[in-house]
Amino acid sequence: MSYIGKPLKRIEDARLVSGEGIFIDDMSPLPNIHHAAILRSPHAHARIIKIDSEEAEKLPGVIGVVTGHDVAALTRPFPVGVKVPVHYYPIAVDKVRFVGEAVAVVVAKDRYIAEDALALINVEYEALDPVVNIEDALSADSAILHEEVGSNIVNQRFFNYGNVEEAFNHADHVISKKFNFPKVSATPVENYGVIANYTKSEGAYTIWSNFHGPFTLHSVMTAALKVPSNKLRIITPKDIGGSYGIKSGVFPYMVLMGVVSRIVKVPVKWTEDRQEHLMASSSGTDRVTWIEAAVKKDGTILGLKMKYADNVGGYIRAPEPACLYRTHSNSTGAYRIQNVAIEAIAVVTNKSPTGLIRGYGGPQHYFPLERMVQIISDELDLDVIDVIKKNLITKEEFPYQTASGGIYDSGDYHRALNLALESIDYEGFKAKQKEAWKNRKYLGLGFACIVEPSGSNMGYVTLALTPEERAKSLPKSGCSEGATVSIDPQGGITVRISTVPTGQGHETVSAQIVADVLGVDPSTIRVVAELDTLTSPWSVASGSYSSRFAPIGSSAVYQAAHKVKSKLLEIAGQELNEPTDELVFDNGKVILKNNPEKSIPIKRLVGLAHWNPEGLPSGLEPGIHESAFYTLPAAKSPNEFDLVNGSVTYGFVFDAVEVEVDIDTGEVKIIDYTTIHDAGKLLNPNIVEGQIMGGLAHGIGAAMYEELAYDGRGQFLTGSFMDYLCPTATEIPKVTIKHIETPSPLTPLGAKGLGEGNTMSAPVVIANAVTDALKPFNVSIDQLPLSPDRIWSIIQNKKTVNTY
């Protein structure tokens, strides 16, 4: 290969840095577009008694006001992937269940008039008791959000793998802890945007949106709109200003604006502002985890008992409870633990609904798991690295099947760990740390190792159903993605992809792959990334999530390119009168392996395919236009024992972080961050480095700054960047990035996904480092974020200080 694995510059960047990007707010695809503004609930939990919009409708420029009952008359509640009767519409109908829930929509000739009209709408509410915290929602005494459900638990499953009770009976120690992970956002630069148009003559909706998929939600939307699938056309713009999973949550607004357009009889455009986004778009779940570890005195972990409780907000909506089950297959992380009991619970509370977010489910899972490894080492007075090494899966055990059914395809975890230790001088740090403690300088070193799943199996989320319930439902499996490669009569190569990139560089890597397969310069290839559900080669799994492009999306491109290659070789074989297995592509030509002088230009082969069908080999169709849909057989449905391989490839990340804690202010400073990655074959090292840094920034945010906070009445407290703190460039520490490559034996290019790993590892590795720094105070971190006031309060509550 000439281009795969090389650090080619991103071809997307030329238009982005020159101002030629096309985003949703740049688009005006139809005449007579009007603008929408949304009236939102000031209450966390209340009944809607009356909505009076008469004065708003009189305002010049306003053409309509739409309420929940208007929308409910034309739609059904969104389908939900669990067997509970939660009725979720894209707008409140009779009751609001979180601050910021849509109550009415005003449509006017411009956004300014629409916003002014919102102030003229009078809504009468009957306030109800809110439920804000997970543990309150678990209580039978809490107020009920959805009376038809009967409790605030909307999903609960129990899993038992191996022989858990025997493991605990043979343990020398049983260690139990509880951990809290916060509700966090992803704060893309570009918020949600929707342009919707209903065509009465066709009974069809066309919706432009910066929706990134997954396209499982296309069926959710058509069901809600009560239309056949081909009557909902979704078009994404050329560019999307970041997503990190969060823009899968735009789908309720797509349906809402589609119905609004139908009611007011004009195309409607809505652009979300930052306050709306923080308050009401989507987020990751906050989670409480109770975990017990059965361990031997040498640090061997015999078994785990884990109880997760995820808060999905006011409604459980697709694709939830994905966050609860996405890491189920890798629930034991990188460790050789075959005895596991899991209780998985999803509850509703009076907070905004949740959905996909970078690493979804991973940060929540690894925070308690990797904290427990350090706690085990501390309580048994063992070196944490020794405990990690003792339990870490070895190279010889791959492919490794986890207790819950995950199949780790390849890896060398010990090699990655040793590379990290070589990079940080572990023994030298321990001596430096003890000397620093004597001088009231609190240094700490934390470690974390995580398995990074990529390429979601569509079947994993059906673990929310019992085996009996699954047997009655449509089976779900696979991870399919589509791509098309075509060559026009003049020889121009075009690649159309459906992975809906949001900045990850899919266009660049697609061009690299096709260039390698066809032996041409990647700069001559045009990649079309904007998606149209009527014309693009999308699948139900298409979209940008779960780090799926490298293992799945790139493989679809690779297969489509090989279809084109096979067709061209067949034509060349006839023209050159040589067997196709003796021909190769080279620099825009097809040549004979042993006689490069015997050749034919690719452009001529293409011309023959288009212009001379009668001269083509028998049975060969004219033209060059090939699509491929790729999936992996490893993505099977869950079996009757609840075993499932939730992803098709599994990478590895080992982090080592040095921090300093100021005990007088509670401030945590990251001194050095080392991260070792194994993502199989790296397709483009430049893009890899950028993805790692982006994931790390998200992880640092969750560790130290970010939380969507609510008070005891469910009032939202962090509605701007004055209150919802995100790390900026000045907060990103010095980072050392190193790689090992154990190619996946499952994917044609050997690639695995990458980009979410440090989002999963950074919160816990920083927590481990802070705990290590504060050993003299007997501090054990069990809650995030590690804000200065929280750290200061923890220190003040510790009365004794150990001397070292």
Give a structural overview:
The chain is built from 21 helices and 28 strands. By secondary structure, it is an alpha+beta fold. Helix 11 (362-379) runs parallel beside helix 20 (757-773). The protein is 28% helix and 24% strand. The radius of gyration is 28 Å and the shape is globular.
Query: Main beta sheet, described?
Result: 7 strands, mixed
| Global mean pLDDT | 96
How much of the polypeptide forms β-strand, as a percent range? 15-25%
CATH topology of the largest domain, by name, is Aldehyde Oxidoreductase, domain 4
Number of domains as seen in the coordinates = 3
Q: What's the number of helices? A: 21
Q: Categorize the overall geometry.
A: globular
Which architecture of the largest domain does the CATH hierarchy give at level 2? 2-Layer Sandwich
What's the arrangement of secondary structure elements?
Layout: H1 13-17, E1 34-40, E2 46-52, H2 54-58, E3 62-67, H3 68-72, E4 95-96, E5 102-108, H4 111-118, E6 122-127, H5 134-138, E7 153-161, H6 164-169, E8 173-181, E9 193-199, E10 204-209, H7 216-225, E11 232-235, H8 251-264, E12 268-271, H9 274-280, E13 286-295, E14 301-311, H10 322-325, E15 340-347, H11 362-379, H12 384-391, E16 400-401, E17 407-408, H13 413-424, H14 426-438, E18 442-456, H15 467-471, E19 481-487, E20 493-497, H16 506-518, E21 525-528, H17 549-576, E22 583-586, E23 589-592, E24 595-601, H18 602-611, E25 624-630, E26 647-661, E27 668-678, H19 685-704, E28 735-740, H20 757-773, H21 788-796
Parallel strand pairs: 1-12, 10-11, 14-15, 20-21, 27-28
Antiparallel strand pairs: 1-5, 2-4, 2-6, 3-5, 7-15, 8-13, 9-10, 9-12, 13-14, 16-17, 18-26, 19-20, 19-25, 22-23, 23-24, 26-27
Helix pairs in contact: 7-8, 11-12, 11-20, 16-17, 19-20
